[in-house]
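Help!! Second protein's tokens look totally different from the first
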Amino acid sequence: MPAATSIVTTAKRIPWKRVLLVAQLVYVKGSAASKALTPAERQRLLDLVKKSQGRPSNLTEKERARVRELAGKALVAARRA
């Protein structure tokens, strides 16, 4: 498992459009991205993406950071698969 700091660093570099694409990947059953997140993390990601309505400005800074963190975690797993 990668260090938490490397996941956060990777996540901060991801453009918002890619964050949303990775979030969609999480919901493809059986994908490595989906398996990388717990059910609670997948639900939180879904809730935040819905709240954002595609616009990062609709989220607080903390929420944007959480979306990026979860997307980064899923992206790292998908790249390893």
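Here's the second one for comparison:
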Amino acid sequence: MRPALLLLTLTLSVYGQRPSLNDGEDHGDAPFLLEDGWKPLFTGPDMQGWVPAGSAKSEWTTCRGILWDRLLGPTRLGCIGRPGDRMLNGPGRTVNIATAEKFGDVELYLEFLLAKGSNSGVYLQGLYEVQLFDSYGSSEPVASFDAGGIYHRWIDNHGVGGSAPSRNASRRPGEWQSFHIWFQAPRFDGAGKKVQNARFLRVVFNGLGVQGTVEVDGPTRAAMEIPEAPLNPLMLQGDHGPVAYRNIYIRPLRPIIER
């Protein structure tokens, strides 16, 4: 650890205060355990605060444990005990879910677990996707559809834009993984005209930086059918394969400290 940061951390630990570590780096435990200002969006035991992002019935459920079997069912996830502090998309293909609350500029942390070959996505403001995908062990060049990618837009029946992650940071299926995302919402003038696009300022995937500043000039593929706005809900994709989530926390965006 750099001397200045080490001194700060030791000093704060003596007095029981939490340090300010918003430097876009991993610092061991999840950031909501280390820093103040985080608000839980999901910790169980129910789905309070989440609503279906569509008219279909939601089969999302909460569980005490998520079961994955490498030999007998690598493409499935099972729910052990109800209720609990994990959420699972039922049989693996159900409606997307969104927060009832709307957000603008945010810092988001969450943990997820994928079955083999599975696929999901975290949509900031319901419109701009950071991709979840079982990219573990892939030898192909990374693309925007790999885990940690900013997914492309879909225009005239083909993908446009997007940003591939800088590396493949995926863990194997059946293991918990994490995203830490810094996001700036689009800006609008007094007449409601957009004057600045949404931006991902940084994405840390399993403790490793995979995205720097990425501008998104419109909704990415399979986004919610809502207009861009200063405030919109967070959405989790549930119709592309088995996925579980836990420890979903959010706080207002703060400037990243350059150390």
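Reply: Different proteins will give different token patterns, so don't panic. Residues 153 and 218 are 7 Å apart (CA to CA).
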